[in-house]
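Sorry to interrupt, but I need a hand with the structure work. Leave the record below and I will have a look:
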Amino acid sequence: MNTSPQESSASAHQVKVRAPELVGRRWMNSGGKELSLADLRGKVILLDFWTFCCINCLHVLDELRPLEEKYSKELVIIGVHSPKFEFERTVEAVDQAVERYQVEHLVLDDPDLVTWQAYTARAWPTLAVIDPEGYLVATLSGEGHGAGLGEIIEGLIEEHTVKGTLHSGDGPYVPPPAPETELFYPGKLTELPSGNLLVADSGHHSLVEYDSSGQTIIRRIGTGERGADDGDFTQASFSEPGGIAVLPDDVATKAGYHLVLADTVNHTLRGINLETEAVTTIAGTGAQHMVGAIDNVVGAHGELGRYDGPGLDVKLSSPWDVLFVPSTAEVVVAMAGNHTIWSFNPETGSIRLLSGTMNEGLADGDAENAWFAQTSGLDLSSDGDVFIADSETSAIRRLDPSTGAVSTLIGEGLFDFGFRDGPAAEARLQHPLGVRSLPDGSIAIADTYNGAIRRYDFTTNEVSTLARGLREPSDIFVLEPAAPGETADPGEAADPSAVGVDAANVSEAELLIVESAAHALTRVKLPKDAQRVDEGALTSKRPSTEIASGPVAVSVSFTVPAGQKLDERWGDPTYLQVSSTPPELIVTGSGSAEGLSRDIVINPELESGVLHVTARAAACDGEPGGEIPLHAACHLYQQDWGIPVDLVADAPAELTLDLRGA
């Protein structure tokens, strides 16, 4: 998901430009030292503009790890944290994100986007390279630039070694002390056939089996070290594991395993046999599918194909949660990394793209037209549909697992969030990661960035609040009422009186919350009368682009990589889709068509909005002017932009974007 434009572009600056100074609230991972560019002179500097809600930014963190290791003496990486959501501005939240994702480089906390604007960043993530003399030499946006960055860094090391301006040696990174907790940023949990609970201990790269109360550890699955090894429970390794689906006995017998695990950062699904204590990889190659790669693509003009084939033959992208659906006998997969929903058949080992286009946003409709944004939580409704926590749109969606059609219950779009109860159309959430059906037919929502458990009631179409004051709740489990005299307290339970609920009105029903940032499982009693909160509806604010109202020319330039040529064998290999929030921002010209230019008309009665632009281009290996070889490798390049615009009378009547194949 990305929460904003994802330009896969690189630009080399022909005229030397001094890199702007790095300004923010504080430095992290520096041992308490304040730093400046002058302090880093002699090093190659790589700035990574990120925000921790953004799945694409998390992908980049993993792409940078090999560079950190290979060039540890010459390269200084600085993560410039530039928040989207209000919660991401808080000191505690940034501290937790750096710890949770094991960021092993300097971080500049930039809550007011001062450095972001100085480097004219327009997308999460954006990367900038500074040479040892302090000049900005390259900028790139989006993910998948590991190889290109390696080439740039190698070139700068060679150049400045010759010039004598490179200083090799230890950098200013100071690792923080590692916390010692039983769980470390746990993500999801499920109930096993035995009645025990299994928790994805994401930060410890392992699974933990507890007794039914969630208090006593029975066993741990995995080495606890980041890895992707299959084997028995003591040998297997994971990388930030997520959701866990339990298979029915008959399906498990045919599949050869009892559980399906979303091994998020390994981009795989893993099968877990509880009897033989074996872990196997059942889907995914281990490489990340990149939007714009050819792996899941068919069609002459680069349309995204509906992949349906062997699970081990396809690249996946950050599967976050999984859910077994009895009506289809398949496991639905929330594929957060490319904003889609997939379906895996454990009996045949095949997997298919069930719903979504890989465009990021909120759009309802059939499977081929629905848009999602970082799908992160799943649960089954009483009638067999699937509820989805669509985190980046702060939305709850409903999916028909037989057709892939989707509708929205709560939520407005990529940049709309808040903390507001009331009618569903007016209610606001903030980056929810979990959803769970309640016994009365309503649903509970892990409203992660609001630190709350929310409830949606279908009978009244209203949203209310069940509990507050939690630290990044990420999943919910409904506990059976405790027997008389029985007590169980796996974690510091939220006090109903502290959230405005009279303790006398607390029912016997309880929820067990994965309170991720508290590294704990926490019991919360369900109040008979939920509270109603209204702290407002918010919209993410980013620097806007000024354009004129009336006719506007939208154009996207595409640079074909060296050794490739446009694939024109079946017509125009380019495609442009333009839409807006609100929809009435564009009077005429919205929609999809071939080509990379479009004339639109902007509504003069509005003052601002967001333009959503998606561009694609297909190219194949071959020399310009020559024929494309019969078995040439072909490539689809795609970019999504979400551009806030202010309508100004004397502003330019054109919008130019750049799609690069670099």
